[in-house]
Input
Amino acid sequence: MDNYYIILSTSVIIAFVHTILGPDHYIPFVALSKSMSWSLRKTLLITIICGIGHVLSSVLLGILGIMFGENLLRLVDIESKRGELAALLLLIFSFTYF
Output
């Protein structure tokens, strides 16, 4: 259970630092809030919704990357087997022709 809290706290710290160091993550919301005269409540709500979308899309991209990586490893295995089969068939054909 301790590992869970370590991972959770590390994730929260990284997310906070990621947001603070990237003004492109919060300046658009501040600008929209000012220009549209949004209340603090509306600004926070929209920011939270966009943040959740940002995190979920990153997770989805990560999952897709893992899936493509696994499929690529399978493809490499298939290609290596195909190469071995081609070499074997070439040897059989050569000995038969000889």
About this structure: The CA atoms of residues 47 and 60 lie 20 Å apart. The two ends are 69 Å apart (CA to CA). Helices lie at 2-21, 27-35, 40-97.
